[in-house]
Batch of 4 targets.
Target 1
Amino acid sequence: MGGGRNHQSGSGEVKLFTIGYEGATMDSFLAALTRVGVEQVIDVRQLPLSRRPGFSKTPLAAALAERGIGYVHLRALGTPKPGRDAAKKGDRATLETVYAGQLELPEAQAAAARLRELIAERPSALLCFEREPGMCHRTLLIAAEVEGAEVEDLFADAISQA
C-alpha cells in the first residue's frame, strides 16, 4: 500500500472531504479529520480569521501540524463579502451568483488548478466556517471545479455518532 499517498478509489476517482468548523471545538475538529485519515486541510476562506479560538490561519496551521496534517490557504477560492452576507441570511441564490463571479477571476482559476493538484496528492478536506455544506460555497466550488470526486462532508460536532 503506497503509504497513504494514493487515495483514489478503484474507479480512479479522488475522495475529497469537506468540513465546517461552526459549532466545533478544536478537539472535535481534529478528531473528525484524523478519524477518516485526512492528511491535508485546504482552507477556502477568503479571510482565514475566526472569532472561534484556534481557527484563525496561524494557530490552525500549528494545531494541524501537531497532528501531522498539512495546511494550505487558497484565498482566491473564498467567498467575497456579499456572498458571505448572503450565506448568513440563507440566500443561496445570491451566494451562487456572487461565487460564480468569483470563480471566473484568473486568480481563482489558478487556485482551482492548484486545488485539483493538492487533492490528487493526498487525502484532503476543504475547510470553511459553515457547518452545513449546502449553505457554504465549498459545495459550489466542488461542483464547478472538481469533476468526478467522491465527496464526504465531515461534521466536527457529530463524531460521537460515528
Target 2
Amino acid sequence: MRRGAGAASRGRGVIWVLLPAFNEEPSLAAFVGRIATICAASGAPYRIVVCDDGSADGTRRVLGELASSLPIEIIDHKLNRGLGETSRDLFEHAAEAAAPDDILVRMDCDDTHSPELIPAMLAAIAAGADVVIASRFRPGGGQRGVDGYRAFVSRAANLFMRVVFRVPGVREYSCGYRAYRAAAIQRAIAVYGNNFIQLKGLGFTCTLEKLIKLDLLGARFAEVPFVLRYDRKLSGSKMASSITTLGYLVMAVLYHWPWGGWRRTYAHLGAEAARGAAVPAAGDAGR
C-alpha cells in the first residue's frame, strides 16, 4: 500500500495516528471521533491505524463500525501479544505505507491522551523536530487521576532514565504519546531491522527503547506540555509493573555493557545514517 509519490504531489504530508488497542470498547468510539475531528481540522489528509491486540470485549466490532465512515485501517492480533509486538506491527505498517514527509502520531486509545494536543505536536515537527514527546514534566504538564504512589513511581522511573540514558532536552521518557517524522522511523527500521523494537516481551519497555534507538541515530527531540488524564480512563490498566521494571533494567545493561553496549554497537550506523549513506541492518553489523 505504498503511496509516497501521490501524497507528496498534494504538498502536504499525511498524519498517521497509530493506536494499540486491548479491550477498549467503552471509550473507543468517542475517542476516535475526537481524533478524526482534530486531524480533519488540520487540513492534512489522515489515516488512523488500530492494532486490536486480541481484545475479548467489543473492541473489534466498534472498530468495524467506525471504519465504515472514517479512514481507519485495522490490524488484527487473534491472541494478545502485548504492547511490544503491537507497537512493532503498527510502526512497521506505517513506515511501509508512509512517505518520508508524513507524520506518525502514536497514542493510547483509552482516552488518557488528549487528541487536542496533536496540532502543537505537528507544529513542533514543522519547526524541525524528528520526535515530539507529550511531556508531563514540562511547565503546564502534569497528570490527573493518578494516586500518590503511582505518581511517585513515575517520577522516580523518569529520573532513573534521565540519569542512565541522558537524552539531551528530554524529561519525559515513559509516555507513549509522541509524534514522529516518518523519515526518522523509516531510517531507524532500515538501520536496526527487527531490532528496532528488540525487547518486545518486556511490557512497556518498548516505549523507552524506541526513544533511545532514535537518539542513537541522532534524532532531534522536542517536548510539549501534556496533562495525562488518567481520570478519564474507563478500561483497566494494561501495565505489568514488575515486567516493565525488569525491562528498564535490562535496557540499562544493554545500553552500557558489555563493551560499550548499544552506544558503541550502533555508533557507526548512526553516523552513516546521518550522512545518508546506505547502512546494513543492525543484525549485520560487524560481520
Target 3
Amino acid sequence: MIVRELAPAEREAAVRLLSVAFADDVGVLDIIRRKDGPSRWFRTLLPLLAPTPGRLLGAFEGDTLFGVLVGGHTDGPGAGRQAAWLVRALATVGPGPVWRTIGHDRQRTRTFPAGGARIVEFVAVDAARRGAGVGRALFAASHADRTPHWLETTREANLPIFARLGYEVADRREEHGVSYFAMQRPREQR
C-alpha cells in the first residue's frame, strides 16, 4: 500500500469512496439534505481543498484507490479560493447546503483553534479493506508534519478508533439534533 497525494484525475474515485462511506452520515445528510447530495457535494468540495499539500491523501495498491483522507486547516483555504468555491457550490448544490456549511463551520470555530492546526474532514476506506490498517496509514501520512490535528465525528462508535490514533474528545455539541464530537490530537504525539 502506498499513501500519496491524489492527482486531479483520481478525484472522481475519491468522490465514489466518500459518497458510499457518508451516504448515511447524519452530519453530512443534515448539511446537504439531498439524496443525490453526497456525490455532488464531494465533487464540489475536493477542488477547494486540493491545491494545498496534505489535504487530499489516497491509499493505493497499483492504480486502485481504496482509501481517502480529506484534510483541512484551521486557517481555512483563503478568501480567493473560498469565493471561487462559493460560486461553484451555489451553482452545483444550491444555496441550502452552502449556507448550512457556513453555519456549521462557524459553530466549529468555537472549538477548533485558529493558527496552524490541521482538521481531518473526511476519511473513507473501501468496505473490503476495512480493518487492514488503511485508515491508520492515511492518518499517519496526515500526522507526519507533527502539527496538532482536530477531527469531528457524528458516529459515537468511531470514538474508540480515533482514541487509538491519539485523539481525545475535546467537545460535544448539538446542531439540528445531530451530536458532533470534536476530537484533538496534540502536536507532541508521533
Target 4
Amino acid sequence: MNGGGATYPEAWPNRHLRKVIDLNSTETNETNETATEQAVVEHTHDHDHAHGHEHSHEPSMNPELTREIAVEVPAEEVSETYAAVTKRYQKQARIPGFRAGKVPSSLVRSKFAKELREEVLQALVSERFRKEITDQKLQPVSEPQLLDLQLMDGQPLRFKAAFEVLPVFDLAGYETVRVEKPNVDLTEEEYEGELSFVLDRVATVEPVEEDRALVDGDWAEIEFKGEVKPLVETVTEDGVTATTPAEPPVTGKDVLIEVGGKNTIPAFNEALRGAKPGQEMSFEVEYPADFGEQTLAGKSVSYDVTVKAIKKKNFPERNAELAKQLANKDSWEEFEAELRERVGARKQNSLVGNAKNKMIEEIIAKYSFPVPESFVQQRVDARLERGLRALAQQGMKPDDMRKLDFVHLRAAQRSEAEREVRATLIIDKVAEAENVVVSDEDLNQGVLMLSLQSGESYETLRGRLVEDGGIDRLREELRREKTSDLLYEKLSA
C-alpha cells in the first residue's frame, strides 16, 4: 500500500533487522517485540511528531498469515565473526596507555562488548534470515519479530523469527462484475449553474430606492428566526407535549434571498413576493428528507421573517476584460470554453470515480481471505496521519492533539483501513493476471504531476523519490490506477 500504506518489501531484512538488533537489549520476547515495534513505526512513519501523536499499539500479526522460522548459526562461524570484529576494533580503538593497534583483545571485548555484539548480529542475523526464507520459499510482508535470540561467543547463534506473508486466494470471478457507466455529458443547466456561481463572486449588490414590492429577480434582505418543531409530539390532558428534545432556533440577519430563484425554497418565494421593506410575516416550511442541509432535512420549521430591504444584483458585462479578471483569458469565448471543459471534467471525474468505487466494492464482496495485520495497522496510521494534519491546518494546537483519544481514533479507522488493504491486494492480483505494466514514460508523467501539484522542481522531487524509495511506491500506485481503469472499461456497460 502506498502513501503511508505498505509496499511489499523485497529488500527490508538487512535494514529492519538491523534496527532490531541495534537496541542490543536482553534476549527476551518482550524486548524483541518492542524493538520490532520501533522498526515498524520508523518504517511506516516519516512524519513530524509535533502533532503530539504517539502510537501505543503493540505489533501484532494475523495468525492465519503468520509464519515462523528457526535459524541456527554454527558456533565456529560465531567465533570467527567475533574474532574478525574484535581484530578490527583492536586496530581502530584509542585507549589511553596503549599504542594504536596494540590494545589487547581481552580489553577490547570487555570495553566494547555491546558494540561487538551488535556487529556480530549485523553480520550473521540478516544474512541467515534471508537465506532461510529463500530456502523455504517464503516472502515476508512484515518486519520480523525476533524470538528467543541466543548469542554467546563460542556457542551457536540461535533465534526464531515470526512474520506475515501474503494471503493466497483464487482470483476467479472478478470478470462477472458489472457496473453501470454513468452519463458524464455536461448539461446546459449544470453549466449555467456553475457560470452563475462564478459571476456571483464579481456581482455588486445595490439597494432599490423606489417604493415598491418585491418581485421575481429581486434580492430580499431579511432577518429571520425559525423554531424547529419536534419530530414527535404526544397529546395529554395538558395539551400537546413534545417527546423529542427541543432544537436551537434557526436564525439569520442581513441574509439575501433571491425571490423566484431556482435555489430558493418555494415557501420563501411565495411569502416574499409582493412584500415591502418593514413588513413582517410568519410561515412554515416542510423540508424534504433529502434536503442538502442535514440539520434541517425532514424537519418542519416555523419562521418569523422581517423584510429589511429590496436589493438588486448587478453583473459586469461579459467581455474580454471580465474574462481576463476571472481566468486570465483573452476573450469571453475562450473563458467559457475553459469553464465548460473544467466543469465537464469535474463531473466526469466525480461520476466515474463513484462508479469505480462501486465496482471495487462489488469485487471485494466476491472474495473472503485474511489480510496482513501489519498492512491494516499501516493504513490506520496513514489515515490517522491525514486526519491529524488536517486538524493542524485548521489550527488545532499540538497540546490539544495530545489530549485526543488515540485508542478510540485508531479503532474507528480500522474497518475502512481493512477494506482498503483488501481492495489493494485484489487489485494487485488483477494487475498480475492482466499483465498491467507501468512504463518509464508513465512513471515520468506521474512524477511530473506530483511536481506540478507540490511546486517542487521535477529534478529535485525525482531525486528525493529515488533516494527514499518513493519512486517504487509511485510505480505501484500508478499500476493500481491503470488496473482500476482497465477494470472499469472491461466491466462497465
